[in-house]
Amino acid sequence: DLSIHSSPWWVYSSNVDGLFGSFDSFKNTTCEIHGRASEFRCSKAVGYTTDGQERHGTMWKKWNSSAIDTDHCDGWILSINSSFAMQPTMSQNNQKCCKEPPLLKCPNCLRCARPNVLLFHDSDTNVLRSIDKQRERYQQWEARVEEDVLLHGENLVVLELGCGMNVPAVREEGEEVLRDVLTRIKGQAVSEPDGNSRRRECGNVSL
User: Which terminal residue of the chain, N or C, has fewer Cβ atoms less than 10 Å from its own Cβ?
Assistant: First the structure.
């Protein structure tokens, strides 16, 4: 993955508006930890827990037994744009009204689609899987950057933009990255040929 090995930046975002992904500079270097609201996935997995167990209750039993089971649902994803929005039309009495957009459905099992967004206590493996892939790429990039700071004297800047206190996930991630790098710098020593040790010169780390 070229981005992991060469990009000087990565965006770690709790927003679901997909704004960063609309820019070429960030399209392949963004980790959206809560998903993206402009994408839709099949909803068949909402009736199961993360370990594949069926949720209890009459409603869930009816939901899980009401559709065709197909493996193609897992990989299906639909990106939407403004053309899916409700468009104003004229009624018979010339009053402006809104025409509802068509109900989005998975083409494989015909279940209704759901936003690719992680909700509270969400166990939908379709959504979790896509977020986990983004996290994995971000963590690989982070590991590479830490090595660049420690071994090659590169600089690291953690920049927070609009990180509030109510949902501290992004702020906590930035602090953890900083703490990890500083801990490694503090404990790193290099052995000299004469048996002595010295601190390795590292780059600057800023928050």
Answer: N
Nearest residue to 151 (alpha-carbon basis) of 206, 199, 202: 202
- Which residues, in sequence order, are CB contacts of 7 under 8 Å at separation 6+? 28, 29, 141
Tokens of 79: 């990106």
Task: Give the phi and the psi of residue 90 in degrees, each rounded to 5.
Answer: -105, 130
Q: Over the range 165-198, which residues count as b (16 or more CB within 10 Å of their CB) and which as e?
A: eeeeebeebbeebeeebeeebeeeeeeeeeeeee
Residues linked to residue 115 through DSSP beta bridges, in sequence order: 40
Phi/psi at 122 (5° precision): -75, 130
Residue 131, Cβ neighbours under 10 Å: how many?
A: 19
